[in-house]
Amino acid sequence: MNEVLWEPEASYRTLPCFDGLTEMGTYFGGGHIVLENYFTFGSQFVLAFELRPQHLRGLLFHARGHKASLNVFLMESKVGVDVEVGSVAVSVSVTPPKSLCDGRFHLVTVSKQRDVIKLEVDSVSEQEAVPFTSTSTTLETLYIGGTTKQKRDPAPSSPFVGCLRNVMLNGGPVAFETASRVVDPVSINRCPAE
User: Strand 106-113 to strand 181-183: parallel, antiparallel, or no bridges (unpaired)?
Assistant: First the structure.
């Protein structure tokens, strides 16, 4: 008798073996982390993290509310941010002078302060005026490393492959261990050292 007792909440693919040394960080091998009720679209926020990609294309962070969305992504040789509120969208990107695929961690900071969105990668920064201010206090789901949701946004829909560490939102650490869901291959607190 082949009877299904329950349906799994998520499927998990096998992570690659980490031969050699590992270090602190979270390795995304094509999967993502879901943090329910975690991100607020407000008049200001600061998201900072370090990344070491294995591929130069992928969605790093995604949040979508009723009238707003945020995407942080890699596209070829640049890091980009798209913010949309209602029908108004603003994009900013930074192309660092050296490749992001150099085996080193790179510091990325995305901040919104009232009417300016700023993106900084290592020591290179760009900013754009934001012709709107969102004062929503609704907590939205934050997707890290990719998403299974259908996106209407121009940001890449492919998942991020590589390591993230020291992820901070508004000055506080983002604890991946308390994630609502981990979907497919993600190794929390362990990255290959090289």
Answer: unpaired
pTM confidence score: 0.86
Compute CA distances 41 → 66, 67, 72, 82, whole Å.
10, 10, 14, 13
Q: Residue range 182-187: average pLDDT?
A: 89
Find, among 158, 164, 159, the residue nearest to 176 by Cα: 164
Average pLDDT over residues 152-165: 81
CA distance 129 to 48: 20
Q: Is residue 183 helix, strand or coil? A: strand
- Determine whether 43 is exposed, middle or buried from the number of CB atoms within 10 Å of its CB (0-12, 13-18, 19+): middle
Side-chain-side CA neighbours of 65 within 13 Å: the count stands at 20
Give dist(CA 101, CA 62) in Å, integer: 22
Query: Is the Cβ–Cβ distance between 179 and 38 less than 8 Å?
Result: no
